[in-house]
Amino acid sequence: MSVNSLKEAAERMDKAVVALGYEFGGVRTGRASASILDKIQVEYYGTMTPLNQIASVNVPEPQLLVVGPYDKTALGAIEKAIRSADLGFNPSNDGQVIRVPFPALNEERRKELVKLCRGYAEESRIAIRNIRRDANDGFKRQEKESDISQDELHHYEAEIQKSTDAHIAEVDELLKRKEAEIMEV
User: CA-to-CA distance for 24 and 36, rounded, in angstroms?
Assistant: First the structure.
C-alpha cells in the first residue's frame, strides 16, 4: 500500500511541475510565443471559448503573432479578447487575420516578469511540500494502525523526501531557464 502512496505522491509532484511549465508558458518574454495566448477566452456566440479552439496562432517572425480565426465573424471578438487580456499587446485586424506585434520589453517590465515567475515557482514548491506532508501523514497513520513498521515509516519518509528534493530542483531549473529567457535582450 505504501509503495503506491510513494508513486501517487511522485505523480502528483510531476503534475505540479507540469503546471508550473504551463504557467511559465503564459509569461511573456521578448520573443513571440503562441502559448502566451493559451489562457485567453473569447466570447463566441455567447459562450466563453478558449482562443486556440476558434483560431490558429502562428509565429511567422520572432516579434509577431498571427491569429487566423476559423470563422471570420469572430475577428472582432478575438481582437477585443486579446486587448482586454492585459498582456500589453496592441493587435491589428486586417479583415482576414489579426496581427499581434510583440513590443520590446523594458528593463523594469522584465524585472516584474521575473518576480511573477518567482511567485509561480514558489507556489509550485509549496504544492510539492504539501504533497510530501500529505504522504508523510498517511505513512504515520499506517504506522499508528500497525500496517507498517517504524523502520518502514522512516524508509518511506526518506524516499518521499528524495522525491521532494528532486522535484524542487526541477522547479528551480525551470525558473532559472525562464529568468534567463526573460532577461535576454
Answer: 9
Whole-angstrom Cα distance, residue 144 to residue 89?
57
Distances (CA, A) of 1 to 24, 40, 130, 152, 156: 35, 42, 20, 12, 11
H-helix or E-strand spanning residue 19 = helix 2-25
pLDDT digits (tens, 9 = 90+) for 100-158: 887 777 888 888 889 989 999 999 999 999 999 999 999 999 989 988 889 999 999 99
Domains of the chain: 2-25+106-183 (1.10.132.20), 34-101 (3.30.1360.40)
What pLDDT was estimated at residue 30? Answer: 67
Residue among 64, 63, 92, 88 at smallest CA distance from 78: 92
Are 78 and 50 in contact, with CB atoms under 8 Å apart? no
What pLDDT is stored for residue 172 in this prediction? 96
Is the predicted pLDDT of residue 74 greater than 70, yes or no?
Answer: yes
- Whether pLDDT at 8 is above 80: yes
In the chain the beta strands, taken as DSSP E runs, fall at 41-44, 47-50, 55-61, 64-69, 92-93, 98-101
The pLDDT, as a whole number, for residue 84 is 86
User: How do 55-61 and 98-101 pair as beta strands?
Assistant: unpaired
Strands 47-50 and 41-44: antiparallel
